[in-house]
Amino acid sequence: MRVGVVGCGYLGAVHAASMAELGHEVVGHDVDADKVARLSAAQAPFFEPGLGELLERTLTTGRLSFSTDPADLDGAEVVFVCVGTPQRAGELAADTSFVDAAVAALVEHLRSPALVVGKSTVPVGTAARLAAVLERDAPHLELAWNPEFLREGHAVEDTVHPDRLVLGVRSAEAEKRLREVYATPIAQGSPVVVTDFATAELVKVAANAFLATKISFINAMAEVCEAAGADVVQLADAIGYDDRIGRRFLNAGLGFGGGCLPKDIRAFMARAGELGADQALTFLREVDAINMRRRSRMVDLAREACGGSLIGHKVAVLGAAFKPHSDDIRDSPALNVAAQVQLQGGDVVVTDPAALENARRLYPGLAYADTAEEAATGADVVLLLTEWPQYRALDPAALGAVVRRRHLVDGRNALDPAAWRDAGWTYRALGRPVV
Ligand code: UDX
What we know:
With 435 residues, the protein is of the alpha/beta class. It has two domains: 194 residues, Rossmann fold; 240 residues, NAD(P)-binding Rossmann-like Domain (Rossmann fold, 3-Layer(aba) Sandwich), CATH 3.40.50.720. It is 45% helix and 14% strand. It is built from 18 helices and 14 strands. Strands 3-2-1-4-5-6 form a six-stranded parallel β-sheet, sandwiched between helices. α1 links the parallel β1 and β2. The protein is globular.
């Protein structure tokens, strides 16, 4: 099929390349000329494992191209809208102006009939509103809503082998088209849920609200564990054996960040309020509050490790990305903690295998180092804030040789406390007993 993709960010770039991988002829459109040039040269504009190779492979087939001209989308049978919906400044609600602008551009430039498919995460009701716009201004265009569940770091795999496909449609023809687009994953067993617009929109925010709740639940348990002298990691292992609960997303620590979970739960609360259903989601305020408290607690532990004050102490921060295998620093708990430690007088040096360039841009006032060893040299305390595999594999003796004091605070419960203590470190973590 001829497929168009509007917006080539984390979602759209991966979606465009994955659609070409599935055999479609794809045009990816973005207003950012630099991004389009890089994608056209098979360079992923952000760190995403496998994306570079996928671009290389699909660009050479001739089935994939990128363009800044929205007119190049004309002729596509299906056009996916993959633009961002960030949190509005000063509000909890989502800013849908990029989605509105993308649909307006399609109304202007698509002459041939097409199915316009929203993938962006939007407040429930957006699809119905946009469908009315198409009906009025471009009746040759039909709308469908097909939310995306990809995780950064696993985006290619999640797109080519989705664990479910949610198709919000208003006609059998729209469903048929989408089933054709996804014929390969459907044949391989990806389950399909065909539904209305509102349900499709809600599935996405409900899934993210559940994941955020699961993380904050275990982090709330971590707070109780700390107060009671218990161990949240063992607690998570033990409750996780119950397959009704499950161990995944029960990693206690610094909590969730990134471009999705924090802003999606806030936008969900705001939208529920508009709909008069705010009581249903008041628990998400608590989920958000527990999550933000983790960051302050981390700063407290760093201060305690420095003997009660951060002033004049050198603090090594391992990790800047909001999670490993990503260079995304949007609402990164790690950088948030680094900035708070600096505000309290700490002399902070941050390192990260992939996100340093982005971090430097957002926090030019922090100091940066290329490696963990370099960041830790002369440090009074080392904070592990993003659990990259290379940090999990650090040798406590080797790192111990470069620091000034062997104090470690593990913000992700990623290291073996016994191994670090045996090498002469004080090991503190969120939700684990002090020895
Ligand atoms: C999330 C959803 O998983 C995905 O389905 C949706 O499409 C977009 O939002 P993503 O933001 O890429 O994906 O990251 P995810 O892997 O979900 O992690 C989110 C945050 O939660 C990270 O900051 C991570 O460090 C944190 N986390 C995750 C925990 O603190 N504990 C856990 O057990 C799991």
